[in-house]
Amino acid sequence: MSRALVAIRGVSQRFGADGGAVTALESIDLEIPNGQFVSVVGPSGCGKSTLLSLVAGLRLPSSGTVLCDGEPMAAPMPRKVGMIFQEANLLPWLSAVDNVAFPLKLRHVAKAERLAAARRMLELTGLAGFEDRLPHQLSGGMKQRVSIARGLVQNPAVLLMDEPFASLDEQTRMVLGDELLRIWSETRKTVIFVTHSLNEAVYLADRVIVLSARPGRVVDDVDVDLTRPRSFAMTAGERFGILKDRIWQHIKSAERR
Amino acid sequence: MRRHERLIVAAVVLGLFALWEALVRLGRIDPSLAPAPSTVADALIRLAGRSEVRASLGVTAWEVLAAFLIALPTGLLLGFLLAELPVLGALFRPLVNFLFGVPKSIFLPVFILVFGVSIPQKVAFGVFTTVFVLIVGGIAAVQSVPRELITVSRVYGATRAQIIREIYLPAMAPILLESARLAMVFNITAVLLCEIYGARDGIGYRIAAWGENLQMPQLYAALVIVAAAAVAVNEALRAVETRLGAWRQGA
Description:
Chain A is α/β, with parallel strands linked by helices. Helix content of chain A is about 35%, strand content about 25%.
């Protein structure tokens, strides 16, 4: 196993003042090797998104450390970590290509260079020919593809995805899931993928981390030993069912409480 | 508007003018209250040729422009600060909302006492009237900025200045322009009110004088000039607004 690219060590996160304090995450320890596709699942409100915002450097944990490539994440490091949200969150006044080039613009990359990079990313995400469309002229799935292209444009080692397909319809989700696997196999990113969908979690990932209800703790770390490339037929297979059931047992008991 | 719609509107307007002209000529309308359009058009041409009338228009335009150029940055900056700084907002937003609803015309005598009947008085009153529209507009513009776009920019390493330039300004632009256009309407109204109430020059001063002397053709001709100028300014601002806000379509 290659060394951990993302290391989460003894991380706890509390919100609010002492009296009404809420512990969102408690003593999380995770080592994620380079190139691994990790899904994170857990009951509603278990702190999955909080965990991602810690890895993104958007906030500091109350205790513990988050290391990316050996460096503590004290602030966002856009060249190391790209993030994709549930909503595409595109800048509505910019065309698709300008949206993808936006992170490079923030770093003052020359215009020709950043547009060329953005075009390559749109091609990678299957949007060649839609470069000049404004977000309101794109479908929900296409917007999320633009958002993925924007997350990849700086070639970060880590891609964080916070329920990226949750607001899309079933078919679009499945198509984009396969697209994501293709992009992942071409770019070999380390992906941390938060989702509510157990199907999605197992289908996409090498490994599924299961968090408990608040305060979020790691209750299971499931190795997904399905062959790659994944195919739709596998989702009806016995192994897929066993893995999904194992995860579901944790979630079910947590949601019932 | 589509082409045939414009033609219909033009035909209706021309028809109304023709009806008005006919009613005056048939003696159904008293020309001393509402002179025929042809008489007004005549007066309009004569007024446009008189240098003192052109000078008055210039004075008014100058007052309107000066007031707008002072009120615009002041009002928007105050609105921005009230929206972004919680302490200032809590202290002053109720006051702004309260003053926004008060008719500003009741303060006109105070402005005359402070500034005298002068050009600075017109400008000051214009600024006073307009600035509230811009403060409220500025607050609304800040509130229209999607918070999640700020988060996205932070993830991609944007500095505070970059967030202002790349997210705040473009996101606020449509509402800022809309407020500016609305503010201009208030501004023109305020300056003309000042001139009609008491002035030594300006088109409002002439309108008041022609009205008192029952010089109806001149009065109506001046109304046409002022209305045309106001509509032109409004439509120009609206054109900019539409261009810069094209991304909002379907949003």
